[in-house]
Structures are given as C-alpha cells and as structure tokens.
Specification:
Blueprint (H helix, E strand, L loop, with lengths): L1 H4 L6 H6 L18 H7 L1 H9 L13 H11 L2 H24 L5 H25 L15 E10 L4 E9 L5 E10 L4 H18 L4 E6 L2 H8 L9 H11 L4 E6 L5
Parallel strand pairs: 1-4, 4-5
Antiparallel strand pairs: 1-2, 2-3
Length: 262
Amino acid sequence: MWRVSNNSLPTFHNLQRHRRAPNNICPFCQSCGETIAHMLRDCVFVCQLLCVFQIPSAPISVSDSWLDWLATFFVSLSVNNRRLLAMIYWVVWFAQNKLVHEGYRRSIYETSSFIKAFVSEHVMIWMADEHTGPTVVSRREAPLLSVAKVNFDSAFIRQDRAATSGVVARDSKGLVMAACVIPHNNILDAFVAEALACKFAVQIAKDMELFNVIIEGDSLTIVKKLNSTAHDRSIIALIIVDIKDMAKNFNSISFCLCIWGK
C-alpha cells in the first residue's frame, strides 16, 4: 500500500516517463493511459472487482490528487474492507503482470475466486492465532531433516519468446546450498517455461547428489502433471516425460506446489 499511495509502481505511465516503455496504454482496457489512478480506480477491470465485493468507491473531485482520494477512500472503509482492498490491489497488480509478461488474461470470475480463496486462507490463520497465539509463517518452509528442497520458477516474455529459469536449493536447515539461473530461447508459452525450470531444478538436484529431495514450484499445472500417472498429450508432454525419467535416479523425490504469500 505504501507503493500504491506514493505512485511508485512501474505502471506504463511511469515507465514511459523514464523512456522504458513505448506507450502508456492500459493492458486491461486498452483505452486509457495506465496511471496508478487508472489501474486501481478507474479501469473497468478493478471497478468490476470492487462491485463483486460490494466495496463502494469514494466520489472523485477534480481537485483531488490520487493520494488525497485514496486516503479519503481508505478511511471511509471498515477494517475488514481495508484488508480486502489491499488484497484486491495486490491481485490487480499480479494480474497485470501476468497479462503483460505472459500474455495470460485473468477473467473477473477467476480473479474474484482467487481473492475469495486468499481471504478465506487469511481468516483461517487469524482464527488459529486467536486460539493458539501468533504463528510465524515463512514463505519458504525448511525441508524435513535429511531432505533437501529445490525451488524453481520462471519468467517468460511472450514478444521475445524468451524465458529465464531460476533455481534455489536449500538443505534441511533452510540454508542455501546453490542458486542459479539459465536463459531459454524460442519458448512457445509460459507453461513450457515453467516445465523447463522444473527440469532444470531436478537436474541441479541430481548433479548435487541430493537423493532425498522436494521439488517445489508455483505452477499447479506442472505439479499435477508430474504427480499424475495419466498419459499427457499437452505441448509439454516430452518435458514431463524427461523429468519423470530423471526422477528415477532419486531415493525419494516429491513435486509440491508452493503458494507465495502469495
């Protein structure tokens, strides 16, 4: 929220001011410049989300700056709706990045469902805190004793058909043993990029002789395919087969989904 209130997000408007973007058009509606006010207040995408969660927007005065309007809007909400608004803003920014960098457009239904699940998860944590006291939650849990954990992720740029895989390996105490990145060219889509990142992670674990390992990533599709015995006919089928073949070299290996805070 600090970055939102201080207009420090790299919107296309801000990027164009620094000559780092060819235009400032909003990727959601394709009709206006993507200022912070447009993306989080005026764009039809965020307006529809606010309607879904029944959050009435504050009136807009010509003399109000973005910060003045946001402060008025925020103060007018209940505590629960303030938390919800912060989540909505975060998810809008996440969806914008998915659209720009991976070409994946989230529908209002999909986005609102994600927010509802995210809210439910936080409610469960708050309820648990009331009964058991505060719980320390880390983004990356340390693996079990004698089991190493290897996290993978990827970044995909559709217009360049390029991707970069990132891998971090940790020991049973959560200490980093290795971290590396590798670029890929001629990548068809984000799923191929994630699959290659996972294959890279398994290869790193094999090279390091980590025979008891947890492979963890944030791609539900990849994790489901690796844990499934069904025949895969998708575009990443051959990569999935390669990963499963490599997995035979381990004493124990599991493929798990990592949920980033999100």
